[in-house]
Structure formats: structure tokens, C-alpha cells
Amino acid sequence: MQIILNGEKKDIPGGLTVEGLLQHLEIKPGRVAVEINEEIVRKTTYGGTPVKDGDRVEVGSIRFDVLHCPGHTPGHVVFYQPEARLAFVGDVLFKGSIGRTDFPRGDHAALTSAIREKLFPLGDDVRFVPGHGAMSSFGHERRENPFVADERG
Length: 153
Description:
This protein is α+β, with helices and mostly antiparallel strands. It has one domain (11-144): Metallo-beta-lactamase, Chain A, CATH 3.60.15.10. The protein has 3 helices and 14 strands. The strands form 5 sheets. It has a 6-stranded mixed β-sheet. A two-stranded antiparallel sheet has the order 1-2. The longest helix is centred in the last third of the chain and has 12 residues, at 108-119.
């Protein structure tokens, strides 16, 4: 079993912590890597190694490209599956909105820059799964999203 956590918040909707979720699922230590650095911020890891922009990870036979998209949290990454033209964006982008940046170390300018410079260039046809709510496509958000729409819209 593999669990991919692509944000840095230690809480999960419903009040669970990451550690609590792992305990609830009865995942033994060493099966999932959750690193806490000196600032008490979880780093996204793959096989215990922190992932970074440009990495590729495999879950079964499926390959994901890793895109660092800070702003909602400093170390947030997006997992993009090029063959399916599908991205798992977490709380970076939503249908009609963007992720919150009012958390400690949140950065609105970094978030909108990551969306425009890392996600939108993947193509208008790329669909995405947000951390909450309905799926959408980068093209729809590029045209309609009031926070990140561009002049091409």
C-alpha cells in the first residue's frame, strides 16, 4: 500500500493528524515515510527520500512527474500523470478558486505564480483532481478562475 500526501499540513480533514491516520490504518512504522524537519513541517517523501521538482515517482505501473508548487504551503507538490493528462493538485487549485495562503508561511504570489508557470503550461486539456470539490481542467481555470485567469481567457 502506498499513500501519497502532497501537502505540508500535519492535519487531515476530520481532525486526524497524519500520524493518527497511519495508526488508524494500522500501517507499521517504516512502511510510509513522514519526515518532520526542525521547523515541524512534513516533507513529501517517496521511499523515505524527499521528492523535489522534476522527480518521477511510480505507484504500481503508473508514473507521476513531481512539480513543486509552493504558496499554499512551502513544500507542496503536484503529482502529474502525463499519459492520462491528469494532475493531483491538492489544495493548490480548485474549480473557481485557489488554495488558502493565510497559513503561516503561505505565499499568495508564489501560489499564483506556480499555477500560471508550472500547471497551465501543461496544457488546457489537462484535468485535475483538487484536494476538495469538483474536478476541472487547467484550460477552464485559465479562462474562468478569477484568481488566475490570464489574458488568453
